[in-house]
Structure formats: C-alpha cells, structure tokens
Write a structure and sequence with these properties.
273 residues; alpha+beta; four-stranded antiparallel β-sheet; four-stranded mixed β-sheet; 10 strands; 14% strand
Length: 273
C-alpha cells in the first residue's frame, strides 16, 4: 500500500516549498553552507496538528524522545496547552502551546505515516528559507513594514483588535488584545523570496538547533525530571511581543524545550522525498 503524501494527510493549507542550496550568516557564528531541502509553506495549523492528536500521538511512545516522553508523562500532556482557548483554537491559525518535544513528535509521526524524512528545521535552514540569497533583514526586503506580518506594533497601533477569521474578539488580560491570525492572512505581503509564507510574526517557530553550541542532535541528557535540558532555538517573532528587531530573519531567540507558550508554534522540513 502506498503511503499518503503530507498534502494528502494534512488538511489545507499545506504544501512544500523547495529551497535551493545556499549560504546563511548566523550572528556571532559566521557563514554556513545549507544543502537543498523542502520546508512547509505555512506554519502547522490547529486542524493539521489535530491529525496527530487523533492518531493517539500523545499515547504513542514511539514518536517521542526519551526526555520528551518523560515530560509528557510527568505533566500529563494530552494536547497542546491552549487547545481549547477561544482566542487561539481556530482551524487555520497556527497551533500554539506546543513544546519542542511535541513539535518533534509530530515530525516523527508525519515521517512514519508518509514514509519520508521530516524534521524540525535547523536554524540555518529556517534562516535560508526566510532570507533568500541577499541577507535581507525581513522576508520581503530591508524596510520594516508593520502591515506585512502579525506583530505587536501593529496591534498597538490599531487598538489590538486584529480579528480571528470573520470574528472580532474582545481582548483579555492573558492575550492583551493581541492574538494569532490565519496562516494565510499575510500571503502575498510578507512572503520570503522563495514563497514561504508567515515566517515572521504570528508565532515563534521551533528549530532543531540547540543553544548556545548550535548542535542539531535530537537527544539531550536529562538532568532531573523536573529540570529542562539545554535550550532550543526558535525564530521569527510573534504576535505577542515582536516588533522590527525580533522579526528580522537573523534574530535568534531560545527557550526551554518543555516550554509551551501562547505564541510558539512550528513548521517542518522534508529532507528526502
């Protein structure tokens, strides 16, 4: 029986974008060659992540790292942290409240189901997909424009009511009047030179790479059950805090892999077809 493709398995909008080989300049680390790969055109949405939940992703040890499974058991994770929140759980919005471990488990599940090699992007791959060949500051060019992505400065200027699909929701203390937007909301406005959509603003995106040594090894040594291993990088800024500085293509941020924040999601890459 032929394995389904990712596009057949995951509800739209989903597609892969081919990223050709090239170079990236990582702040304080130097220039690095990046081989060709494919990256998801959009961040993973709630509807797409629901396929992993429905496939008993939180009950299947096979798809988790040893440390990730211990976290899942210790804290009784059965779904993303904000799965039932009215301000975030819309079908075409990016999934949020997922840890690095959950994002990685999704990639292992999708790899097995589709018989392909799918993984979180390294920070070099992420920056290459966002920046293109000319080391631009933002996916669309070198000039900051608050109207090209979902960011905190736009929310502040327009009063925080960015809307959710056809709805406008009253701000709450938790979300401070700002929220995610559909992953296609800025398509054609903030696309990268390769046509990758929503890479800055909306949600931070987990990368495979750890911080500060830039290793791309999946395994991390558990220190204690309640303590997180070394931090992992995420890129792109979000709706929550981000302005012109931290939505730059080369801006590096990091967090503990077990953290499950309201403004962090992910998109996978495909390393083989």
């Amino acid at each position: 029986m032929t394995a389904p493709s990712s596009a057949q398995l995951l509800p739209p909008p989903f597609n892969w974008v081919d990223i050709p080989p090239g170079w990236v300049k990582i702040k304080r680390h130097g220039r690095f060659a990046v081989s060709a790969f494919k990256i998801a055109k959009y961040p993973i949405t709630n509807t797409q992540y629901a396929k992993f939940v429905e496939a008993r992703g939180y009950d299947t040890r096979w798809w988790w790292t040893e440390t990730g499974w211990r976290r899942r058991e210790r804290f009784a994770w059965t779904e993303p942290r904000y799965w039932d929140n009215v301000l975030s759980h819309f079908p075409d919005h990016p999934v949020v409240g997922v840890s690095w471990f959950e994002a990685l488990a999704f990639c292992y599940w999708l790899s097995q189901i589709t018989n392909t090699q799918i993984m979180l992007p390294t920070e070099d791959q992420w920056q290459r997909a966002a920046q293109g060949n000319d080391e631009r500051k933002y996916p669309w060019g070198n000039e900051w424009d608050i109207l090209r992505c979902n960011n905190a400065q736009k929310a502040q200027r327009f009063g925080g009511f960015l809307g959710i699909g056809s709805k406008v929701v009253k701000p709450t203390a938790l979300w401070q009047g700002r929220r995610t937007t559909p992953v296609t909301a800025y398509e054609g406005l903030g696309d990268s030179p390769f046509g990758v959509v929503d890479m800055v603003g909306n949600v931070w995106e987990w990368c495979l790479t750890d911080h500060p040594d830039r290793s791309n090894e999946v395994a991390t040594a558990p220190i204690r059950l309640l303590a997180s291993p070394q931090t992992r990088l995420f890129r792109g800024g979000s709706w929550y805090y981000s302005g012109s500085a931290n939505v730059r293509c080369d801006f590096r941020n990091f967090g503990y892999p077990a953290s499950r924040t309201e403004d962090t999601g992910f998109r996978p890459v495909m390393l083989s077809t």
